[in-house]
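#data-curation
PF: Archiving a pair of folding outputs for the training set. Convention for this channel: one message per protein, sequence first, structure tokens after, nothing in between. First:
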Amino acid sequence: MKRSLATLLLATALVAPGVLAHAEAPPEMKSAAVAGVEARAKLAQEMVDSIYSFAEPGFQEFRTSEYVTGILEKNGFKIQRGVAGIPTAWTATWGSGGPKIALGSDIDGLLGLSQVPGSPEIKPQVPGAPGHGEGHNSGMPLIVVAALAAKDVMQKNNLPGTLMIWPGVAEELLATKAFYVRDGMFKDVDASIFTHVSRDFSTGWGPMGNNGMVSVEYTFHGKTAHSAGAPWAGRSALDAVELMNTAWNMRREHLPVTQRSHYVITNGGGQPNIVPDTASVWYYFREQTFDSIRGLYETGNRISQAAAMATDTTVERRILGYAAPNYGNKPLAEAAYANIQAVGMPQWSAEDQAFAKAVQEANDLKVEPLATEIAPLSTPDGRGQSMGGGSDDIGDIMWTVPTITVRYPSNIPNTIGHHVTAAIGMATPIAHKGVVAGAKAVSMTILDIVTTPSLVAEAKDYFQNVQLKDDTYDPVLTPEDKPAIHLNRVVMEQMRPKMEPLYYDPSKYDSYLEQLGVAYPTLPAKQ
């Protein structure tokens, strides 16, 4: 049964075991924010479906950014475009005075993950095109709806404060947030809330156990020659790339088990009978601390130089991205978690559960129902010792201002991240309901920050005296490094004309599934 607002407000006064009590916004303000989110549930659905249909990869999110900033501009936000030298990056600001709250989520898709939403089986909309296999079509709708609901309450009650919405451009390349920080985007921010899609509803504090990362491309330069007629006259840049990769793979045995490293050859030459005079390899170096990230990167640099020396070539490198380890702010996380408790999980229908099961069965995934209970507050003790893994460049902002990530339940359990199965549910009622639930919690947390100076003070104290006590932000970016805005350009020049006819038109269809003629839930035919 759907919770009434009275029940919701009663729940905000309760504190789960292990969660500290905190000052918070008056119940009537939170009630108004929740009502504001519910009134915008249709907007949330339209935004989720629209951004899903745009499916733009990193640095090519032009249609997505135009769409989102258009909505914000109509609602009184001042837009600054092209921030940090990135054409698809922007900020949208409303309000005056403090506290200033940054609100962000990622907007980019992934290459090759085009998928018909609502189809349990893998079925690309446009073969070879990008898709939202990480669910990034849902986070910005959540942020927009939450901000608009909080804005209404702030205006009605004459509350001072500034909201700054910003997009995570090219997060899958980990290629922009360090540049945002370097450009000073967060210099006046008091608190920051980030969101990311999940199967659960949660937040956390302390070191999050993931890896930071350096993304770097090494380009070797040699001398061309006829591969058969006079190979001795050439110096193969491809040989240097292969030698670097071989040396790196041998070095892996003698690196800490927490490291993760991987590469692709981005340029291997033209044709076999010409010795390549240029070849490139793109590496991700991942580790858990600033010192170990830098150390891994420097090891890669030395190996690249050794490969160049061995092949009588030269090498240059370009940093394409950077991500700091993630670290959540404890007071903000506890405040947000109390609001997550108050909101609770979405009320899944029988159709939602049936569809989730169909997706799992059709793709040989573990069968598990959509969660009906919120996840525990994530703490360092509860997470245990991490052995490394993925990265998220929200860490760069986390080491700049007090920041948390709110994870909201818009995806299906046991689908595979960075995989087409994670796209299947992302324009269905499951995604829509998760976004609305997440927006309620975020809007309430915005009001907690705006109305209770003690929460801001506690967040800053934790940031300065706990988080920064033994470590400081130490990216490997230099002043000369520039965002890799060329990435994915050629792909989208090829794919966009094929994708545009499939963009969602909310003026004609209630949902993207309706536009595509996809029944919900679509269940596999019984064998």
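PF: Second:
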Amino acid sequence: MNNFIFSIAFTIFSLTIVQAKQINPVDSLSNKNYQYFEEKVIEFRTDSIKAQQFAKYWLKKANEEKNLIQQVKAYKALIHFVDKKYRMIYADSLLEKAIATKNNDILGSAYLTIGAAHYDNNEYTKALDLYILANNYIAKTNDQYLIHKVKYTIALTKYFLGYYDEAIALLNQCMDYFKEENDLGYLKSMHVIALCYTQIERYDHSSYFNKLGMELSSEYEMEDMIPYFKNAEGINLFKQKDYENAIKLLKESKPQFEKVNDYATLITTQFYLGKCYWEISEKNTAVTYFTKVHDGIQTQKYSRPDLREGYEMLIEYFGETNELKKELFFIKKLMEFDKEINQEFKYLSYKIHKEYDTKTLLEKKRKIENELASNRKIYFLVVTLLIIILLGLNGWHLKSKKREKEKFNQIMAELAEKKKSAVISTNSQNTNLSPELTKSLLKNLEKFEKQKKFLEKDMNLAKLAALLDTNTKYASLIIAEQREKKTTTYINDLKIDYIVELLISNNKFRNYTNKALSDEAGFGSTQIFTLCFKNKIGMSPTSFIQQLKSSNQTQQNKLE
């Protein structure tokens, strides 16, 4: 995957591969033009030493002639082919020359190239910041191809950082554009969106795009993309616990990544193969793959939070087999890994379940070291600590339950009090509408509430105004004056009141999922529903339903 993103920046540097006659770089180059150097860099793109030599001659000529645009191009070429440790030196010079051009296309493309360099160094947060800067400049241009290239790079980085929904939104835009404009861009966008859907457990969506991607890869004669879709489907099947077919697809895709030296995807493939074999209780085979993942992390300086689980399983395995030195070795490596990912994956790392957090790792490390020295005193300390933690957690849980029950009782009391005075008061002293208009609009508003029109999906100010037979300005005014709320809050509150009444009066709705309740109330999304419910009622729908069930059970027990 890292090779994908860096190749994108190189593609932007030169979209067309120009065939040229091979010559030795030491030949006389003083009379060559810029096009010649560009063609040579592209020709030797698989030979970084030769490509780098031509790029340096290119830069020398551009510096002598003080040609800003060619200086920018030459620096971009050098960034692609020099060793990683020198890239940022050239990046500073690239940015300086790009700024001097005062050209949005050039400046945006420069930021994209520098971002790709950071991405290739696994510095995803820095890369994302630079991609956003690139987007700010490129968005001002009319180059739709470049605009959507930037969107793809931002989406790919967001995928690695764990912003899956945001990545999907961008990738949908990329697919819409690339479908007609660029077959490879279309397939790459489709591949990443499939990976994103797997992570948010939309397995059907992921499978659809993976199968479509394989079909289109053959149709477009881009067979090199097929292994990527097979690999994504293998991960998708693993998440669905179809381990046998997952192993088959992952193994089929693996040779391609070895061939093109796509170490990032290769490491990820080995990780999921290890997890598959672990799940089917072939732990010896699983450990072989997890060890390869560790080797890849060390040699390629590559890290992703989800790979952490491989270390956890290695520690567990060598603990079970009583190989204390190996167990201690991987505990230390896991602690090093944690330090690395916590710098680059602050958003995602806290979402990943950690069986061995840093504190526990330190305790476990100390325990093994003492065991190797025939000192087992740490065992008592660990057990004592765990008991204290469990007691503390139990106490906190009981207090939390008590507070939640008190909150529920308070809510039910307020709802009962509100029901007694259910007559909706009206504000007779409005200053913005005439009495006649107020009376007419208020009558329509009460009709709107009585007929529960607010339950319609995507109800908004415009639709409400149409139902009230007025314009949006008067509609918002009548709600502000007579209901003392903003329009959106007014509609959402009506929806929530409706759902609360259903939950209280009808037991069957208490078995509904949040999504089903959201659909029942006409909300656009489950997330908006749960947020509005909590804001209005003071607790989540799930907690409210649990308390209702508990209260109902208590009453039944009393009757019995």
